[in-house]
């Protein structure tokens, strides 16, 4: 019996190569896991069982194409797939099927991956509504968003990996609260063609990955990275081997730490203790922590929210006028507000963004940094019945949003659990196109710690 | 400084911008826009004259 809630892509790929398991058996087991877990966690909005099984049978009949051959993967419901509806979590797009694959989905299929279905998102990835998805570490708690289903599904084993999108933390946030690895690559590293425009802020948005290990994140990025003529945001930078230096360790590396974390909110004490224990672990492994000052990062929230709201609102003008009742009220109000933001605010936000970019570049150069390390979130996942979205959402993203504004790659790796059993994430941030260094640092940390091996037990999550 | 905005102000802004929103949204939007103006105020007070607004999203650093 395959234990899917513990299996990584690398382990599954080895089993497939050795013919110890077939792609069909792997997909069948994953579909059974979906049946077992969906009543509790609601990670999927659409499951493509028949197409997934057909693709698995075809994979079994072919020579292996690489490490993703036969691996079942879920896709956020804002990335179009040719054989499933893409509604971006909204009644506005109910029943919409593109007939095309997003570039990242096409690249996964070309690498032999099996597309299982679509994962739940907040409506238009805006984070304003409460989707049905629940956190498997405590079913009363927020699963993170907007890529809510992706993190949860990977955590419970109803997919071996997932693709999400991240315009302010929408991959790293759910990764941190589900004890999975969440990667937001450099802006321009991965094509966003095929992401629903109405659920995207193009200058901030990134397609990212959820996996159960850092190595798996490297494998997945290898398959989806690279220039795409269909997306002018992608950049013609060579794609290195992301596995080549994975075992390089952190000895001799210089990791920047910003005291006070950009004037963001105070950390919950247990989160602070776990993140500082992670810093100490990195020091024991041979890294040097270097304090850095990033004073302009105190403008992260006003600058980031302004750009985010303006960019995501723009495609909604006609729907807001003609079909306002099809939106969740909170989403509609956010989009309406985004439509009314004065140009002077947007201009000031873009100026602040340039100052932040210059400042972080100077910090990396002057302090000779290999990376920055921060908490992913200032708090753990909160109870849904205590959560007030308008109040709590801005509190969650002051450490993730800066890297959407600056375009730098950032990865969240599990760094422990609170006494209530809720996961906490450590964020590693790199230079532009420096994903290989992120993988090297977080892999060294992961190998030295047990957190990524702990899996949620749904019966316990119900009982708490 | 929090500005006082009313539903009628939102109506004018919508007319100027060619936007059409449900009538029941106008009063809450006036409050939300006032809050946003206050939220962005620190950004407007800072002198960023030396910085051009970002015109490209290429994240690479100039050498």
Task: Describe the model.
The complex is a heterodimer of chains A (464) and B (63). By secondary structure, chain A is an alpha/beta fold. Chain A has one domain (9-463): Amidase signature (AS) domain (Amidase signature (AS) enzymes, Alpha-Beta Complex), CATH 3.90.1300.10. Chain A is 39% helix and 13% strand. Chain A contains 16 helices and 11 strands. An 11-stranded mixed sheet of chain A has the order 1-3-2-4-6-5-10-11-9-7-8, sandwiched between helices. Chain A starts with 8 loop residues before the first helix and ends with a helix. With 63 residues, chain B is mostly helical. Chain B has a domain at 7-45. Chain B contains 2 helices and no strands. The A-B interface holds A 186-188, 202-203, 233, 235, 237, 299, 301-303, 305-306, 317, 320-321, 324, 332-333, 336-337, 339-341, 344-345, 347-355, 357-358, 361, 364, 406-408, 431-433 and B 10, 13-14, 17-22, 25, 28-29, 32-33, 36-37, 39-40, 42-44, 46, 48, 51-54, 57-61.
CATH superfamily of chain A: Amidase signature (AS) domain
The radius of gyration over CA of chain B amounts to 17 Å
Beta-strand portion of chain B reads under 5%
The third-level CATH topology of chain A is: Amidase signature (AS) enzymes
Percent helix range of chain A: 25-40%
Shape type of chain B: elongated
**Helix and strand succession of chain A?**
HHEHEHEHEHEEHEHEHHHHEHHEEHH
Give the count of helical stretches of chain A. Answer: 16
Please tell me the overall pLDDT of chain A.
95
**Unreliable parts of chain B:** none
- How many domains of chain A? The number is 1
Greatest chain-chain interface?
Answer: A-B, 46 and 32 residues
Indicate the low-confidence ranges of chain A by residue numbers.
none
Report the strand count of chain A. Answer: 11
Helix content of chain B: 40-55%
Report how far apart the termini of chain A are: 28 Å
Spatial sequence of strands, sheet with the most strands of chain A: 1-3-2-4-6-5-10-11-9-7-8
Write down how many β-strands of chain B occur, each being a DSSP E stretch of 2 or more residues.
Answer: 0
